[in-house]
Design a protein that fits this description.
Layout (H helix, E strand, L loop, with lengths): L2 H5 L8 E2 L11 H5 L16 H20 L25 H18 L12 H10 L5 E5 L6 E5 H13 L5 E4 L1 H21 L1 E2 L4 E2 L3 H13 L5 E8 L6 E7 L4 H13 L13 H9 L9 E7 L8 H14 L10 H12 L3 E4 L2 E5 L10 H21 L3 E7 L2 E6 L3 H11 L7 E7 L1 E4 L2 E6 L2 E6 L20 H16 L3 H17 L4 H20 L22 E7 L7 H20 L3 E7 L4 H5 L12 H6 L4
Parallel strand pairs: 1-3, 7-10, 18-19
Antiparallel strand pairs: 2-3, 4-11, 5-6, 7-8, 9-13, 9-14, 10-11, 12-13, 15-16, 16-17
Helix pairs in contact: 3-4, 4-18, 7-8, 7-12, 8-9, 9-12, 11-12, 11-13, 13-14, 15-16, 15-17, 16-17
């Protein structure tokens, strides 16, 4: 047994058991799910497929070499976020470049042979047997708890029943389709996207709103993903009592989502005009720290939207969002394609097609769940109400008013009568309603506990009661170098979130104890935390520290994508180390690539191994024979 396996004893091994009754949970589940869904699995030998790795590296080098000699005429329309990989293969580069590539591959293959010895996996045979059994188990299913609270096990029948009763059984929101109807609609969606591109790239009719790069992106998506259909699945809201399921639609790799990506890119340009928007708790902290002394009647409040995505009336949203975009068009980028954006919103939000087991559905109402533009669409929709009604009517009552998608936060200084009126007006918009927590001096919002103490606001870190704290154990197949960064990032957040020093130290102590409970050596974890704390404290005391000596060289610009290379490599603890790969690259390629191609930076980029979540949670629903989703939906099975 390797030393790292022998020394690492995990005492915090738990999962969420929702089997009915709980005693029906299979033996040994905690020993597997207790590792955490993000636990990366170490296979006996490095599995990096060198031929595939070097094919990709060669293609990248040859692409740079080709465009070095044949630069594109116009790159102004290129949008990196809307890139879609094509099947074009660049021609071979010059002889010197090809020799470098061949020599590098030969050297790596030769040096790597000594690292291919068989080693022990970081899962024992019983855990492997459980993984193989649970992948497509007829009785049990593994799902992820909402809010990153860990892994859950429940009966597959319960999962499917909940999917029907809590979500897909609502025929006002989801329309069931036959297989043939779904296939026909898929072809209609492809036709709509094709017509969309033709319509908004028509130069003769002065509708030239899509660049050539945007046209290529959308048309290529139709060619590459003609048959890919989105898949419905659910996560479990373990923090709710009683617990419920959260609907999720996996749209990645579908042509409708490619149009949604394009739509999201342009809707993102409107974010600076949404005054109530916050991207995370860090931005809220900045706002709270700048509030200054509070009046004596100041109180905190929160509100949660009721199923926001499926309670946005599509027709109403299209109307109010379009009107708002038209009202700010002069402030948006000059090339903002407003008519095309409005057209794309209608296509995306009215054609969200997905499958669930042997059933197919079309979402009739609300935000197209799972698509890239869903968040910005929902944010923009409710902002139109905030801007036109809530802020003008209640700005004198709101010392602070912000929203994180469907979670609202504010500091109220108005009267009781105005508070009742405000709550009514918040829910008086379309069919979307909100549930309020009454005004108070202490509450939890996102990952913060926010308090009013005297006339000031203080904060501390908030963690949900059902959090399993399944931090990555040392036996997980992660590069050990990443742990310092993880610890530093967590402590930095705690330092920002906790107004009082004692609260920060309390969180640092808990972090230490929780990592030790996950198998980490006490002295190692103590070193990581103390080192990170010293750096955080120094940066806090000296936020604008500048070098005391004059730099001897001019600052260099960040390399662009024509000056940067990536060698993609599957990580394995026992594989050839990164510094050895770096030395071989420097020996055989660095000089020639820098001089001939202008390469300024080459990064060895690790891809993580598969983790437990990858193997046990699937977007596609496995159905036991005779217990298909359609039989639960029809009521044949209860």
């Amino acid at each position: 047994m390797p030393p790292y396996l022998y020394k690492s004893k995990i005492t915090n091994m738990s999962c969420h058991n929702y089997c009915e009754p709980k005693s029906t949970m299979p033996s040994g589940i905690k020993s597997l799910l207790g590792m955490g869904l993000k636990y990366c699995i170490k296979v006996p030998r490095p599995t990096n497929k060198l031929t595939k790795t070097f094919d990709r590296f060669r293609e990248d080098v040859r692409r740079i070499a080709f465009f070095k000699k044949h630069p594109p005429e116009d790159e102004s329309s290129y949008i990196a976020k809307l890139y879609i990989k094509s099947h074009w293969e660049p021609p071979t580069a010059g002889k010197a470049i090809e020799n470098c590539l061949n020599n590098l591959e030969t050297a790596i293959r030769t040096n790597r042979e000594r690292y291919l010895r068989k080693s022990i996996s970081n899962l024992n045979p019983k855990q492997w047997n459980l993984i193989n059994s649970l992948k497509n188990h007829d009785k049990y299913i593994i799902v992820e708890a909402d809010k990153n609270l860990g892994g859950c096990i429940l009966l597959r029948d319960t999962y499917i029943k909940r999917g029907v009763t809590e979500n897909l059984g609502n025929t006002q929101v989801y329309k069931p389709l036959s297989q043939q109807q779904a296939n026909n609609l898929q072809r209609i969606i492809a036709r709509k996207i094709s017509l969309f591109v033709s319509k908004w790239s028509n130069k003769e009719e002065d509708r030239d709103l899509l660049s050539e790069a945007e046209q290529h992106f959308l048309l290529q998506s139709i060619r590459q993903y003609p048959d890919n259909m989105a898949k419905f699945r659910m996560s479990l809201k373990a923090h709710k009592n009683p617990w419920k399921m959260r609907p999720i639609v996996c749209c990645a790799g579908t042509m409708l989502n490619m149009l949604s990506r394009w739509l999201d890119y342009w809707l993102q340009q409107t974010k600076p005009f949404i005054a109530t928007y916050i991207k995370d708790s860090g931005q809220l902290l900045d706002l709270l720290q700048n509030l200054g002394p509070l009046p004596p009647n100041a109180r905190l409040f929160t509100a949660d939207a009721n199923s926001m995505y499926t309670n946005i009336d599509t027709d109403h949203a299209l109307k109010v969002i379009s009107e708002w975009l038209e009202s700010i068009i002069d402030q948006l980028p000059q090339n903002f394609p407003l008519p095309a954006v409005i057209d794309a919103m209608a296509i995306v939000m009215r054609n969200n097609l997905f499958e669930w087991g042997d059933k197919h559905f079309l979402q009739l109402l609300g935000t197209a769940m799972g698509t890239s533009s869903a968040v910005m669409w929902a944010n923009t929709y409710y902002w139109t109400h905030e801007k036109s009604k809530l802020i003008p009517a209640y700005h004198h009552c709101l010392l602070l008013f912000r929203r994180f998608v469907d979670d609202m936060f504010g500091v109220w200084i108005g009267s009781d009568e105005e508070w009742i009126s405000f709550k009514n007006d918040v829910s008086n918009f379309g069919i979307l309603t909100w549930e309020f927590e009454e005004r108070c001096s202490s509450l939890a919002f996102l990952d913060l506990t926010i308090n009013i103490e005297g006339n000031r606001i203080t904060t501390k870190t908030y963690q949900k009661a059902l959090n399993l704290y399944q931090y990555i154990p040392p036996t997980s197949e992660h590069p050990k170098s990443m742990m310092k960064g993880i610890i530093h990032g967590l402590l930095r957040n705690y330092h920002r979130q906790n107004t009082k020093v004692n609260d920060y130290y309390n969180m640092a102590t808990k972090l230490y104890e929780r990592y030790v409970a996950r198998g980490w050596d006490k002295s190692t974890m103590r070193h990581y935390i103390l080192t990170a704390d010293a750096k955080i404290q120094h940066n806090h005391k000296h936020p604008n520290t500048t070098p005391t000596t004059i730099p001897t060289t001019e600052p260099t610009e960040e390399p662009n994508n024509k000056e940067r290379l990536f060698l993609h490599w599957d990580y394995h603890r026992d594989d050839i180390p990164r510094n050895k790969l770096r030395d071989l690259y420097n020996l055989h390629c660095e000089h020639e690539f820098a001089n001939t191609l202008g390469i300024k930076q080459t990064t060895i980029c690790y891809s993580r191994p598969k983790n437990i979540k990858d193997l046990l949670t699937k977007a596609k629903l496995h159905q036991a024979p005779g217990r298909e989703a359609s039989k639960f939906y029809s009521g044949e099975l209860l």
